[in-house]
Design a protein that fits this description.
Layout lengths: L4 H33 L10 H6 L1
């Protein structure tokens, strides 16, 4: 299968953008999902200040 140079360039751009999005979005996504789920029973409640101080 032979790809044209423009197709290779578009695929390269898509991969570069997806790499940047994953790089900068992974930790915020994990934090968001953790705060959305909440604390486990018996643990102190989650807050933004707890995140900064512990």
């Amino acid at each position: 299968m032979v790809m044209s140079p423009s197709t290779k360039q578009k695929i390269s751009i898509i991969l570069d953008v997806s790499k940047v999005v994953f790089h900068w979005g992974f930790i915020p996504a994990v934090l968001y999902l953790g705060f959305k789920k909440g604390a486990d029973p018996g643990m102190p409640p989650l807050s933004f200040m707890n995140l900064l101080w512990q």
